[in-house]
Design goal:
The complex is a heterodimer of chains A (328) and B (328). By secondary structure, chain A is mostly helical. Chain A is built from 14 helices and no strands. The radius of gyration of chain A is 22 Å and the shape is elongated. At the A-B interface, α5, α6, α10, α12 and α13 of A face α1, α7, α8, α9 and α12 of B.
Chain lengths: 328, 328
């Protein structure tokens, strides 16, 4: 990162530990690990990723195997999370479903981040009509309710494969991030190193991709975490409504069958509780991670914070706190 | 006033963009949705409604006209709210289906969102006023965790716990079987009773955002000189909290209204689906699953317009509350 950029306090605040003969931990990772919130969040998310990775090893049955003799069983040692109406093992569905849910959320998040970063940063740097236009489009997309739009859009799709769904999600969700990144790029654009690049005659794409983006990498990462969890929630929600790829295993699909077979109304809590809790757990982890990133990159949030408030923010995340404080 | 004129222009433009997205979506997707829709009508039904195919072609594409011709016809039909016949409710016109379902949704989301706002800002205000007090240490963390949960997970939990286990609320539909919708006491009381749990769920899911926003802004407001001055004048504590600090602290959170309301309308789809509540959200999901694209399009248009209107109302309220906007 450029020494010219004073807003990036990450490398300055924590010089990477140099331990000979060991892998050096990058400064920002060390910082994130030192913050309690982001440490907890990171652990929760990594735990889910780990579960997704080893899913085939720990799942006890094929997720769609049905066995009507073992249908609708409450959680027991034999079926940790119980069984569905068809007698499928819910534990296997949840751990294997983690793969598709996380992958789709991450893919949509990466795509949306790409669109948002390019649009938001270019707009902020170019200013003028381009900025007006992008800003306007962003606001329009924030006004149109995203879930109904996605429901209708995915309704038209013939096949709802991973790539298609990721693209559709990204196209609707990019606006959340574009607004944040644009604001942050605006504060960077009049800094000396950008002016220097401009004075030396560099082209707009070169400045955007070569100067602005590398210096915003930590903010882009934070924006990615935000849109990752929104995408995760939205995708699970769409599948829950029956608008995903229903032949695959994922949290949303398990929830959809739980709802369609009206298991809740029959007093069965396990078919919806476990996939829902897995989703809530992951989202909570991401929110905590985000809160930690906020605190690390914005030291103001750390100071003058009484213990109770810290506890509170640990529960939900300081992102909203940060936003409200910034707008205050 | 210039500010308001700009907002108004933005909303008009936003509605136009929403209509255009609605127009382009089915045309951009691979394969025409027209076939899927027409499958649901028998030849005799088609011949009984001359011109119906043309209406669908204007809405969804797949006809022999150029896209510009279609666009003009489409805008013309929308202006007259003519979306043809709803195939899943044959022979009811789409406009009638929308008119029947919309009041339920507007009531649900209107009341719930207003309550979420009142409860959220109220708790946020009191929590900030008495930091570390009972409200601050009990309600705030609870709402924080709830707002990190996916809305449909909260809804399913509420349905299971309060509806099924504790029998506090009716669990499905908008009114009791055997009650005929109309303007009479039997129907209204039944409808009110049935809306309680869905409203509670939406409040739980969306109040957290207001709590956090209000609380953080309030904390900075308390430090202002005019609050100290009000205390010095010997005004009652409650009056200082509501009329002086709260009155000013409420403005920044109101700016986050647009995005929060748009996402609450999304949450409405899930909540209505879970409670089989016959509002626009549930109807939208059923329409999309049943290839009734004309109905889905109409609902998307109506929901977008509703969100934009709500924003407009909010802007007027902002104008009333914030004198800076009137002079600026």
């Amino acid at each position: 990162m450029s020494q010219l950029d004073p807003t990036i306090d990450l490398p300055l605040a924590a010089p990477p530990r140099r331990v000979r003969g060991r892998i050096r931990v990058p400064g920002w990772v060390a910082l994130l690990l030192r913050n309690r919130k982001s440490r907890a969040g990171l652990c929760m998310v990594l735990f889910m990723v780990l579960v997704a990775l080893v899913a085939p090893l720990i799942s006890v049955a094929h997720p769609n195997d049905f066995n009507l003799l073992a249908a609708r069983q409450a959680p027991s040692w034999h079926h940790l999370f119980g069984t569905t109406d068809q007698g499928s093992d819910i534990f296997s569905q949840v751990v294997l479903g983690a793969r598709r849910s996380l992958l789709l959320g991450a893919a949509a998040g990466i795509l949306a981040t790409g669109v948002a970063a390019i649009l938001g940063i270019t707009a902020a740097y170019s200013g003028g009509l381009v900025d007006e236009g992008v800003n306007f489009l962003t606001n329009v997309f924030l006004t149109i309710p995203p879930i109904p739009l996605l429901v209708v859009a995915s309704g038209y799709l013939k096949s709802r494969g991973m790539v298609t769904m990721a693209v559709v999600l990204a196209l609707v969700l990019w606006a959340f991030e574009a607004r944040i990144l644009r604001g942050q790029a605006l504060s960077l654009k009049s800094r000396d190193f950008i002016l220097a690049a401009k004075a030396s005659g560099e082209s707009t794409p070169r400045i955007v991709f070569g100067e602005l983006m590398p210096n915003m990498i930590s903010r882009i990462a934070a924006a990615f975490v935000l849109v990752f969890y929104i995408a995760l929630l939205t995708d699970a929600g769409l599948e829950f409504l029956g608008l995903g790829d229903m032949t695959k295993t994922s949290w949303g699909v398990t929830l959809y069958w739980a709802q369609t077979n009206s298991t809740v109304l029959q007093g069965e809590w396990w078919p919806f509780f476990f996939p829902g809790a897995a989703l809530a757990f992951t989202v909570l982890g991401l929110v905590l991670l985000l809160a930690g990133i906020d605190e690390v990159s914005n030291p103001r949030l750390r100071t003058e914070r009484p213990e109770r408030r810290r506890l509170l923010a640990a529960l939900v995340g300081g992102r909203l706190v940060a936003r409200a404080e910034a707008s205050a | 006033m210039r500010w308001f004129a700009r907002r108004l222009a933005f909303y008009v433009f936003a509605i136009w963009v929403a209509l255009t997205i609605n127009f382009l979506l089915p045309r951009l997707m691979p394969g025409s949705p027209l076939g899927g829709l027409l499958q649901h009508l028998t030849p005799s039904q088609l011949s009984a409604n001359p011109g119906i195919v043309q209406t669908y072609e204007a809405l969804l594409g797949g006809g022999h006209h150029s896209i510009w011709q279609d666009y003009v016809t489409y805008l013309h039909r929308i202006a007259h709210f003519d979306f043809g016949i709803s195939t899943s409710n044959y022979p009811t016109p789409v406009s009638e289906v929308v008119g029947r379902t919309l009041p339920y949704s507007m009531f649900l989301v209107g009341v719930a969102f207003l309550l979420a706002f009142l409860v959220g800002t109220g708790i946020g205000m009191v929590a900030a006023w008495r930091r570390g007090g009972a409200v601050d240490s009990v309600f705030v963390p609870v709402f924080m965790v709830l707002s990190a949960f996916p809305a449909f997970f909260t809804a399913l939990l509420g349905l299971y716990l309060f509806g099924l286990k504790l029998h506090w609320f009716p669990i499905q539909h908008a009114y009791d079987n055997g009650v005929i919708p109309g303007f009479n006491w039997a129907f209204l009381s039944s409808a009110l009773r049935h809306s309680e749990l869905p409203i509670l769920v939406v409040v739980c899911a969306y109040a957290g955002g207001w709590v956090l926003n209000m609380r953080t802004v309030m904390i900075t407001t308390i430090g202002e000189d005019y609050v100290t001055m009000a205390h010095a004048k010997g005004l009652r504590d409650r009056r200082v909290m509501t009329r002086y600090a709260g009155r000013n602290a409420i403005l920044p959170p109101l700016n986050g209204f647009a995005a929060l309301f748009a996402s609450a309308v999304g949450g409405l789809v899930f909540v209505e689906f879970i409670f089989s509540y016959p509002g626009a959200g549930y109807t939208l999901q059923q329409a999309v699953l049943g290839n009734d694209y004309a109905l889905a399009q109409a609902i998307l248009v109506v929901l977008s317009v509703c969100v934009i209107l709500a924003n407009l109302i909010m802007d007027v309220l902002n104008l009333v509350l914030d004198p800076r906007l009137r002079t600026g």
